[in-house]
């Protein structure tokens, strides 16, 4: 008996040595049984080999020992618990698996990727390749599968996906920046044109205004001389003087000429105001931050767009005095212009546009509201998207509000919008007095 045991121990030791040699040198020529070689391959493969029943909850009937190394579980525990596989799949991944698992009996093979909870409680991504085994009669007898940890690959895919999303966002921002640059260049060109026209108009307006003032003075002197001549002539021929005065209608001319001069001078003043508004609105060359009067900017912008508004809307102004605001005033003027034009377009027949201003603490606000058609609630969150517009095709680019949003954000402010179908919309621009010190959240 002792001799038999000694022989058995020696044989076991020899097999163990051969197994160690194989592990150290897989190419070494050693004599192992098929069972030992298979056990060695399974234990060192990166995939967990398992089998399960082909019915019900797919209870595992065999799990390779490398499950302990990969997931930390004892294979015997995985086999003994009939719900082990099902209970360790991530809840979000279960519906996809079990909704299509029946296709295994049609196709014979299925591959899934899902999250599986390891012994530490962490979910790791596993690739599960299942294959249905049938007997000679075609009846299902067993399901065999291999579970491979693909967490690193999934992490790489997720990283690539994030980078792809970041690149898409970057491309979108670059597109928006390009659009803003094109719009700024267009506004600069308009500003240069406006400044040139303003300069050319100012010259004739200047001398026409000066001539009218001089002419008004000359006519006053002329009528004064006529009155004096009439006084002298009245003594010799009063009837003739009265006849001449009535024939020339000098009383009417004296009154009407004065009114004509006043109206002409008022008209020239309005032209000068419009020209000044063009210059104030464009602010050619002024792209630097500086303290500015926002109400003056609103007024100059109103003068520019008034021709488009006056036939559809009555302007109501409710200004509160504002402190100087550090900004790029030409860009804020552009935002106000976009909102005023949009308000006008929202009014189909006749309506009102209200402009209000106010300030509190370290911020100011400008409110522009209209009595137009309003914006549907399902679209109100999209109105600041580039190229999105509710206007008919060919009547809008969808860049006005997007550019306005970008300008206000650049000034560390924000735009708020409230709207109701059939009643109108209100846009509120909130800006800090000094963007370098304050940001409005």
Helix content: 40-55%
Q: Quote the distance from N terminus to C terminus.
A: 89 Å
If strands are numbered along the chain, what order do they take across the biggest sheet? 2-1-5-4-3
| Total beta strand runs | 12
Question: Looking at the structure, what is the overall shape?
Answer: rod-shaped
Binned strand content: 15-25%
Which sheet architecture does the biggest sheet show? 5 strands, antiparallel
Low-confidence stretches: 1-20, 393-398
Radius of gyration: 44 Å
Secondary-structure map:
Blueprint: H1 2-24, H2 34-44, E1 47-52, E2 60-63, H3 67-70, H4 75-80, H5 84-87, H6 94-100, H7 104-107, E3 109-117, E4 123-134, E5 140-149, H8 151-248, H9 250-282, E6 290-292, H10 294-309, E7 313-318, E8 325-327, H11 329-346, E9 351-360, E10 363-370, H12 400-410, E11 414-420, E12 424-432
Parallel strand pairs: 7-9
Antiparallel strand pairs: 1-2, 1-5, 3-4, 4-5, 6-8, 9-10, 10-12, 11-12
């Amino acid at each position: 008996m002792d001799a038999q045991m000694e022989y058995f121990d020696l044989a076991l030791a020899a097999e163990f040595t051969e197994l160690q040699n194989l592990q150290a040198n897989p190419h070494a020529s050693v004599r192992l049984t098929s069972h030992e070689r298979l056990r060695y391959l399974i234990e060192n493969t990166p995939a967990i080999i398992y089998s399960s029943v082909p019915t019900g909850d797919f209870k595992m009937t065999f799990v390779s020992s490398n499950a302990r190394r990969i997931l930390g579980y004892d294979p015997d525990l995985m086999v003994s618990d009939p719900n082990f596989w099902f209970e360790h799949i991530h809840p979000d991944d279960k519906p996809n698996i079990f909704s299509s698992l029946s296709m295994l009996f049609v196709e014979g093979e299925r591959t899934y990727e899902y999250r599986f909870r390891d012994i530490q409680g962490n979910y790791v991504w596993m690739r599960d390749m299942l294959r249905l085994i049938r007997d000679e009669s075609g009846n299902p007898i067993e399901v065999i599968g291999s579970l491979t940890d693909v967490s690193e690959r999934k992490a790489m895919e997720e990283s690539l996906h994030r980078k792809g999303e970041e690149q898409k966002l970057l491309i979108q921002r670059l597109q928006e920046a390009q659009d803003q640059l094109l719009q700024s260049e267009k506004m600069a060109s308009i500003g240069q044109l406006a400044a040139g026209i303003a300069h050319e108009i100012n010259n004739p307006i200047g001398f026409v205004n000066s001539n009218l003032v001089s002419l008004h003075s000359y006519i006053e002197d002329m009528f004064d001389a006529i009155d004096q001549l009439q006084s002298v002539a009245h003594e010799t021929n009063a009837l003739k003087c009265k006849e001449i005065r009535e024939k020339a209608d000098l009383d009417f001319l004296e009154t009407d000429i004065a009114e004509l001069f006043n109206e002409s001078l008022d008209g020239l003043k309005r032209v000068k105001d419009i020209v000044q508004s063009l210059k104030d609105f464009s602010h050619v060359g002024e792209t630097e931050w500086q303290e500015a009067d926002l109400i003056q900017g609103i007024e100059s912008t109103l003068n520019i767009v008034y021709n488009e508004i006056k036939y559809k809307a009555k302007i109501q102004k409710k200004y509160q005095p504002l402190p100087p605001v550090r900004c790029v005033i030409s860009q804020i003027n552009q935002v106000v212009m976009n909102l005023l034009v949009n308000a006008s377009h929202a009014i189909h027949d006749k309506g009102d546009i209200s402009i209000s201003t106010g300030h509190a603490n370290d911020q100011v606000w400008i409110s522009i509201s209209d009595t137009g058609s309003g914006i549907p609630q399902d679209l109100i969150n999209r109105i600041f998207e580039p190229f999105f517009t509710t206007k008919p095709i060919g009547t809008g680019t969808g860049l006005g509000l997007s550019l306005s949003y970008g300008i206000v954000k650049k000034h560390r402010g924000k735009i708020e919008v409230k709207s109701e179908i059939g009643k109108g919309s209100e846009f509120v621009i909130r800006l800090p007095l000094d963007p370098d010190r304050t940001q409005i959240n």
